[in-house]
Specification:
With 400 residues, the protein is an alpha/beta fold. The chain is built from 17 helices and ten strands. Strands 1-2-5-6-7-8-9-10 form an eight-stranded parallel barrel, surrounded by five helices. The chain has a two-stranded antiparallel sheet with strand order 3-4. Helix 15 packs parallel to helix 17. The longest helix has 19 residues. The chain is globular, with a radius of gyration of 21 Å. The relative contact order is 0.13. The chain binds (3S,4R)-3-hydroxy-2-oxopiperidin-4-yl beta-D-xylopyranoside (XIL). (3S,4R)-3-hydroxy-2-oxopiperidin-4-yl beta-D-xylopyranoside binds next to loops.
């Protein structure tokens, strides 16, 4: 698949990487055409993006987003907020909304919201709520029903007789406790997996196994009863690739959402996790636009929920890497932000050193990844510029 920015569609980014990259992705010698003329600024020299970039250094991503009716934010770990006071200041500067990476999961990292089938430990989420309130950040709750991040006891204790109570009680207690404090909830996460072979493309999760296909509708109904004001979201990943798998995933998510909307499930938005890859060319802006338009036609809003760009397979040279990562941010955002139903963009982290990818999908040469808008010294990178320019150039949201 060709990168839309290379002339005549003849040069793939992968090919460029193989061919010795510096000249090509650094692009000093490449004749860009049409839609990509502006990209030349981003690619031309190390300082060009800042020099030519029409963004006031005093501004922030949240302000640029807000100017278009968008909400920008990022995910963060409670442990990082508690150990580095600079982090919260940076969040406050750049973000309007925060998603705690661990604190609302049943179990993640050193955070255990559900120590046992009958108990809750609200210490971490309470603290996150305190931080968000003290700093005037909106909060996203992530996530209530997921096949992953379940505590060790879950598989031995949960069964088809108690799973409904486990799930509904969890939602009532957690959503109810934070009613009025959480702007939006990822009610169900990652329920579609075409590879699992079902006609409806639902994932073989314990929730499906114990409760059957209606568990998704039930989760949304209970969440809505527990907090009628929250924006209730279905969140899923790998919706962007123009591959047979991506096609199947989009089809599965679309038909799930069609079904939920048709039966009156209180669902308000699709969360599009956007874990992009620096070496992956399988993004087709038009297919993505058309998928998002289909979602919007159901009356749903769309949130870009977990945006990052993994540079693990890109060359070690930081200048080259940062340019490719920035170009991917801009290619992606310029396409998805064309859809008016997209109301929010959130990166999965703000500071490179704190990205989950550093441990989850690291580079083979051991160099730190650079997947986020700010580097490990909290400085803005080309990725920041690319996001800023995407906000600057996207259409303003019109809210009725
Ligand atoms: C990841 C976190 O970033 C990690 O720190 C954690 O250990 C595992 O989960 N999709 C999701 C997120 O919905 O919850 C995942 O977050 C990343 C993929």
């Amino acid at each position: 698949m060709t990168h839309r920015c290379f002339p005549n569609g003849l040069l793939t980014r992968r090919k460029a990487l193989r061919l010795g990259l510096g000249a090509l992705v650094g692009a000093k010698g490449v004749a860009y055409t049409g839609a990509c003329a502006q990209r030349q600024n981003l690619f031309s020299t190390k300082n060009a993006p800042i020099r030519n970039f029409p963004v006031n250094e005093d501004t922030s991503l949240k302000e640029l987003a807000a100017a278009k009716g968008l909400v920008y934010g990022a995910a963060g770990l409670l442990r990082d907020f508690d150990s580095n006071s600079r982090l919260i200041d940076t969040f406050v500067k750049e973000c309007s909304i925060l998603t705690p990476e661990w604190s609302f999961k049943w179990a993640a990292g050193n955070s255990l919201l559900r120590p046992s089938p009958t108990s809750f430990d609200f210490t971490a989420p309470d603290r996150i709520v305190e931080i968000s309130e003290a700093n005037n950040l909106l909060l996203r709750g992530h996530t209530l029903v997921w096949h992953s991040s379940l505590p060790d006891w879950f598989m031995s204790e949960a069964n088809r007789y108690n799973a409904e109570h486990l799930m509904t009680n969890h939602i009532q207690r957690v959503v109810g406790r934070y009613a009025g404090k959480i702007y939006s909830w990822d009610v169900v996460n990652e329920a579609i997996e075409p590879d699992d072979g079902r006609n409806n493309k639902l994932r073989n999760s314990p929730w499906l196994e114990f409760l059957g296909t209606d568990y998704i509708d039930l989760a949304f109904r209970v969440a809505s009863e527990s907090n009628p004001q929250a924006l209730l979201v279905y969140n899923d990943y790998d919706l962007y690739p123009d591959t047979p798998k991506g096609e199947a995933k989009r089809a599965g998510v679309l038909s799930l959402l069609e079904h939920l909307v048709a039966q009156g499930t209180p669902i308000h938005a699709l969360g599009v996790q956007s874990h992009l890859k620096g070496d992956d060319l399988s993004f087709n802006p038009n297919k993505m636009r058309s998928f998002l338009a289909d979602i919007a036609s159901l009356g749903l809003k769309i949130l870009i929920t977990e945006l990052d760009v993994n540079d693990r397979y890109l060359p070690a040279d930081i200048e080259v890497r940062d340019r490719i990562v920035a170009s991917i941010y801009e290619d992606y955002l310029s396409a998805v932000l064309d859809e008016q139903a997209v109301i929010s963009v959130q990166t999965w982290g703000l500071i490179d050193s704190q990205s989950w990818l550093q441990s989850f999908l690291p580079r083979f040469d051991g160099l730190p990844l650079r997947p986020l808008p700010l580097d490990s010294n909290f400085n803005r990178k080309l990725a920041w510029n690319a996001i800023a320019r995407s906000f600057n150039q996207c259409p303003e949201r019109i809210y009725e």
